[in-house]
Fold this protein.
Amino acid sequence: MKADLIERLHHPRKGWAGGLRSGLNAAWARSATSLPSVVMLLVVVACNAFLQPDFFSADSLSSNLQNAAPVVLVCMAQAVVVLVGELDLSVGAGISLVNCVLAAVPALAGWGTGLTCLAALVAALAAGVCNGLLVGYFKQSALIATFATGAIWFGGALLLMPQPGGTVPQALGDWFAMRVGVLPLAAVPPLAAVLVWAVLQRHRFGRRLIATGSSADAVFKSGIDTRLIKLLAYVLAWLFVFGAAVCISAQTASGDARLGLPYTLNSVAAVVIGGISLAGGRGSMLGAICGALVLVLIGNVIYFAGIPSNYQEVFKGAVIVIALGFTFVSARRPV
Amino acid sequence: MKTTPGSRRLMLLALVVLVMIGGQLAVPGFTNLGQLGNQLKIATFLGLFGISQTLVMMAGNQGLDLSVGAAATLGGIVGAALIGSAPAGLLCAVIAAALCGAAIGGLNGFGITFFRVPPLVMTLAMGSLVDGGLIVWSSVMHVNTAASPALVALAGRSVAGVPTVALVWLVSGTLVWWFLDHSAWGRRLMATGANPTAALLTGTRVRVVRMAAYTASGMIAALTGLLLVGYVGQAFLALGTSYVLTSVVVAVIGGVSLGGGRGDYVAVAIAAVFLTVLTSLLTALQIGEAGRQCIFGATLLAFLVVNGWSLSGRVRPA
């Protein structure tokens, strides 16, 4: 059994029929954890559609997609890191950092849109590498290490942009608002992220990532460098963080060092709602995406139901507690 | 390199002295008596929240309490409201705040020990529920939020140059130190954190100990919140929010292991003083928030490395 597992880690695709069967089994096992979040999403969508008759119109859908794009991306980033068995409390500050780079660099260095985006991408990936090195190679507790680096990213963002202001390259905003048919271009970054994850999951890296999350010790002993897997997981996550920051910057069109901060805890909440185990290795990306959409749509529901916005925080807390209840119930079943 | 509790205390004390000397050289008057009293007051609150965090982190199982901010806000608001309306005054408010905090902490402990919810998630969800509930409550009910004169006196007065809150801290800190290092319950808490299975087999009721740790954490946070109202002069939403993560930081710098079972409150208390003095030095040097955040993060990382050395006996897979 163990030899078989190790064999599959190294050569995940052996024989298409067996591969398909084990793949389907694995997909079912993974999505079972996200079932509560799918149900929750359906309930929230139903409430929203009931309260807002034109919910399914092209305009409303595309504006919802624009709002959801960054949240989905940052929650996917958190999900990647949680699946590998770690945590990243610096994603929010990272969004701020990228946002401030996008808003400040054109004025400071006089760079064009392409170069500015490249600089922002480099900043995001460098942050990911830094977190990955600290957690993977230096074996620091992810909770504290990423909290510390988060303070540094936030400091960097403040350094670039002490006061909110600046201008994000116009091209980004134009592109973000564009629509091809019913599909707004804002949906492209999250879809691309989903595609990247879907491909990776079917290949060696994705398998190793999940395996590292479920038992780093066993994977390490079977000859896989878990340090590298963790580093790469952080880099992948920060690619998604970069996407999220670009989406937000395109919407706000200016820089603000405090812009990203609330996203950190929201991303953790979405991952929990999505049924991904914080111990790592259990859960599916589908759950994280549903969790993110639930968080976005709850705001809508509260607005259209005419409930004072004061109640938003309580609702969010209640949804997380309900999700925790689901997780508890499903964890009792033998796996 | 192996650091014992004693060497951790010495290192932190040396750092405090170093920062103070640096401050005196850079900004004359940095170490005068009035200034020191102020610093001690600020450090007191950090140190008191540090007690909460120390207790739950020692209990192990990735223990953490991110609801201390919400508990403090609740304690402060309820306490201030009661002082305003009930003639019983301070005592009544203290009891009410303690009960509120114990309720929050008890629920946390219940979810964590019996439902096996990770402490991070449980206390985060609890914090967000309580914070949200307070927002709703304060928009519906308008109660007294001003601190009563008795509370202000308790938090603001000085006895022979020593602020009274610092005396409160001294007493409670000594109690915590005695509890952790010299009482049977403290030993049980350490055993629970270090190796729950062994502790259970040797007759410690592990779940009860964990529940008690979280309940105490919530209670201490709520009482600190009430004290904070006296210091600030008014109860408001988000009263305790800024202490949530800084209290974790203080505990980590003080050498409490996130894995549980190791911790020394004296070092945590010195860490609270160190962090306060460092912050005020950076403010005095007129370093902007950007620089302060960066130095804060770098300090924390440096201490993580030190903790890594001192725990290097423990093997952890990558």
Remarks:
- Chain B has one domain: 5-309.
- Chain B touches chain A through 46 residues (CB under 8 Å).
- The longest strand of chain B covers residues 158-159.
